[in-house]
Structure formats: C-alpha cells, structure tokens
Amino acid sequence: MYVVMNKLTVAPEGAATLEAGFAHSGERMRQTPGCVNFELLREEQTEGNDVYMVITQWQDKDAFLAWTQSDAFRRAHSGSGDSGAMGELHMYVSVVDSR
C-alpha cells in the first residue's frame, strides 16, 4: 500500500471554495485505477487558517504515479489555486497494515 497525504492550509475565506472543489472527489477517486481510498479531513479547533488533510491510499506507488500523469489528475487540479491553499505533500509506504 502507498499512502499520500497532502496537508492544506487555507485562510478562512478560502475554506468553502476548497471544500466545494473536493465535493465530488471521493466518487472520482473511486473510479481511478489503483486508488483504494480517498479522504478529506478538516482539523478541529484551529486558530487562524483552516487546516485540511487529503489522504489517498493506493495499491502501490506505480498506481499513484500513473494517476499524477493522467488527464483526470490535470482536470482535478485545474482550479486548485482558487482557494489560496498552500500544500505540503508527504508520501509513505505501508509497513504494517492491520486489515
């Protein structure tokens, strides 16, 4: 399993735009070959900017890389700057999986 986490920090006035941009991402990601899971989380009780975590789980690194080279990826990220969010990307290889 390959896990990609993107921490997004956005000013409060951009939060609704960011959430709207992700509104249909779960359905699209379920249709993406190799994508096992997709989540958008909002951190509770932050002061100042809102903090989100986008978590995607992939069958393997190759599936993730294939998605990043796809037209679907480009379409999904075409308006990503509209919210003003700043991202911090982290990629992990699963070491222990309790499923």
Structural class: alpha+beta
Discrete helix count: 4
Beta-strand content: 25-35%
Give the averaged pLDDT, no decimals: 88
- What is the total tally of β strands? 4
- Uncertain regions: pLDDT < 50 for 5+ in a row? none
- For the record, the CATH class is Alpha Beta
Secondary structure: helix percent: 25-40%
Main pleated sheet = 4 strands, antiparallel
CATH architecture: 2-Layer Sandwich
Distance between the termini: 11 Å
Q: Which strand order does the major sheet show? A: 2-3-1-4
CA gyration radius, whole angstroms: 14 Å
The number of domains is 1
The rough form would be described as: globular
Strands, helices and their partners?
Blueprint: E1 2-10, H1 15-21, H2 25-30, E2 35-42, E3 50-58, H3 61-68, H4 71-76, E4 86-93
Antiparallel strand pairs: 1-3, 1-4, 2-3
List keywords for this structure.
single chain, 99 residues, Alpha-Beta Plaits, 4-stranded antiparallel sheet, 34% strand
Question: How would you explain this protein's 3D organization?
Answer:
Strand 2 and strand 3 form a beta hairpin. The chain is α+β, with helices and mostly antiparallel strands and 99 residues long. 27% of the residues lie in helices and 34% in strands. It has 4 helices and 4 strands. It starts with a strand and ends in a 6-residue tail after the last strand. Strands 2-3-1-4 form a 4-stranded antiparallel beta sheet. It has a single domain, classed as Alpha-Beta Plaits. The model has no long low-confidence stretch (mean pLDDT 88). The protein has helices at residues 15-21, 25-30, 61-68, 71-76, and strands spanning 2-10, 35-42, 50-58, 86-93. The protein is globular, with a radius of gyration of 14 Å.
